[in-house]
Every structure is written in structure tokens, then in C-alpha cells.
Amino acid sequence: MSSELSQNIIKNYEEEYEKVPEKNKLFDWLNDLIQILFPYQKTSEQEINSRIQSSKKLFQHLVLNVGITEENAEQYTAVMYENLIQVHQDLLQDAKEFLKKDPAAQCLGEVLHTYPGFYAITIYRLAHLIHQKLQLTYWPRMLTEYTHSKTGIDIHPAAEIGVPFLIDHGTGVVIGETCKIGKYVNIYQGVTLGAMQVEKSMQNIKRHPTIEDHVVIYANATILGGSTIIGNHSIIGGNVFLTKSVDPYSIVYTKSDAKVKNIKTENNPINFMI
């Protein structure tokens, strides 16, 4: 029975999977790279260059382990680290947007090292780079799902997100695969940018919304559909549910019907549904 099980496992692997990187080593490379890009303490250029070289070696080792030839592994590594310059500049713009917009942010270092929204954006931008430039199967999703497990923020690595971008608080945010998000977009916890329906036949179709520049989307708003466009400079209020486009400079909100009563003078029982 043990032999039969092992044969089934091997057969299934050969038929359905490509080789994947070792998760722990991939995540070690990721977190080490983030610390190189945003060091906790001031360090020398020599030390940074030394750590970059070590990071390159680990990345190339990971690439080799998934069956890429040595020559191609060197090319992949060169492309990855050449593009890191732009990714680093983009992430600094993202961080400055947090500092500019969040009254609770005291300094840039606080954003870089403690904000879950910025951590999720950092890993998204690295995963998006791998998805776009290297097209390594599994890697981008492994990285963004790692972020998902750490922060509760779910960003598909294929989504296109402009610079700067801000996710405040972040828990419960979902950004789908075919989303297009412009510059200076701010979103809050619980926001879903999703599809109207989930069908395999829609795999190569734009299923998720487009968010234009300078849009703010407040907590728990849901925006669905590949043809849904949120016009630039719009504000989407909390708990809004949208499946249709809105023009630029729109304000979209739901009307609250909250009632306030005094417990001491209220005679009728209040039944809360849970």
C-alpha cells in the first residue's frame, strides 16, 4: 500500500506540476532582500554591496533548483537585480505617500518597518517584477500568498498598480488578477476589487475593475467587474457596493440609517441578529 501511494504521488507530480522553489529558502531570500532595501540601521555602501551579492547568489541558486539552466539562471538574476533600482524608487514613493497621508505616521522608518500595508505593497512589487520580467511559474503567487498569510492583504501579482499606492490598515483587502490601479490611489481595510463571477472560461478576460488616478476607497467597499471604471479623483465611501462605472470627481456613498437611543429610557427590546 505504501508503494502504491508513493507511485501515485510521483505520477501526479510528473503529470500536474513543475518544479517549485523551496518555500523556506524563497521566503528567507525575500525577507533578507527587504532588509537590504530598507535597512534597520545605517550601514556602509560596502556592506550593502556585499549583502546584495549574497542575495544574488541565493536567488540564482533558487532558480537553478527549479530546472533553469546555469546560463539562463545568470540572465534571470541579472534582470531581477537590474530592475530592483526602479522597484526601490517606487517603494520609497509609496512609503512617502503613507507618511504624507496618515496622521499616525511619525517618520519614514516607521512606515518602512512597521506598516503591514507597506509590507504587502513591497512584496507585491517584487512578485510583480518576477511575474512580468521572468515569468517563473509559482514564484509570484507563493510570494503574495505569503504576504496574505502575514497581513490579511491579498494582491494578485499580475495586477497593475501605479506609484504611489497606499493601503491603510489593510486587513481583508482583495485586489484581483486583472485589476488596473492608477497613481495616488488610497484604499482602506476590507476593500474588495473583484470579479462579478468566477468561471474558468473567463481566464483570459479582464474580470476586475479599473481604478483611475487620485481615487480614495474607504473601508469595506466592494467594486466588481472588468468593465467597471472608477473615474479619477473620485471618493468611494465605506460599505459601498459598486458594479457600474462612475465618472471622474464622483463621491459615492451609502446613506446610514443608524439610530441612537438611551438604554435607560428605551422600553422596547432590541434584538440583534448575529
From TrEMBL:
GO biological process: amino acid biosynthetic process
Organism: Candidatus Ornithobacterium hominis
EC number: 2.3.1.30
Superkingdom, taxonomy of origin: Bacteria
This protein's name: Serine acetyltransferase
InterPro entries: LbH_SAT, Ser_AcTrfase_N_sf, Trimer_LpxA-like_sf
Keyword Transmembrane helix: no
Record CDD domains: LbH_SAT
Gene: cysE_2
Alphabetically ordered keywords of this record: Acyltransferase, Amino-acid biosynthesis, Transferase
Any GO molecular function: serine O-acetyltransferase activity
Top EC class of this enzyme: transferase
